[in-house]
Amino acid sequence: MGKAVAMTEVEESIEANILVPEPAVLETWTTRKWTDGVQIDELKQSDTLVVETAHHTYEITVIDPSVAEVLIRGGECFPKPTVARVVGASLGRSFLKLRGIYVGLKIELRDSKRLIVTSAIRKISIFADEVRV
Questions:
Q1: pLDDT per residue as tens digits for the range 31-56
Q2: 75-89, pLDDT tens digit by residue?
Q3: Which is nearest to 127 in space by CA: 35, 66, 38?
Q4: Taking a C-beta distance cutoff of 8 angstroms, is the pair 88, 98 a contact?
Q5: Is residue 24 part of a domain?
Q6: What is the Cα–Cα distance from 20 to 96, expressed in whole angstroms?
Q7: How far is CA 33 from CA 28, 36, 51, in A?
Q8: In this structure, are strands 121-128 and 48-53 parallel, antiparallel, or unpaired?
Q9: The model's pTM
Q10: Domain of 106?
């Protein structure tokens, strides 16, 4: 028989990893105020957003807010107006805020053929009833 090995309890402390961005920490995500963006399902039909990301500008017009269906134009993926659904705001395929568009996050969109994830949002402008809000 082999020797018995004594097990000792090791105290470990878990520190925040500086390589993980703050929004990627679950506690930060769940306690976020969500004031720097919009929920498509809280807008009205025909409301229009102009969303500037790190690489492109998109014009998004709400078709059916209850299912986040929009008409989107802009960037390389939408050179002409295309019907799509706003899946939500994310860090890039993780931590999804359903049907949302928020500064600092990426938009996940689904058209009839594909899932598109934009670069990070820098600015959102909302136009409701032809009046800038």
A1: 667 688 999 999 999 999 999 999 99
A2: 999 999 999 999 999
A3: 38
A4: yes
A5: no
A6: 17
A7: 10, 8, 20
A8: antiparallel
A9: 0.74
A10: 36-128
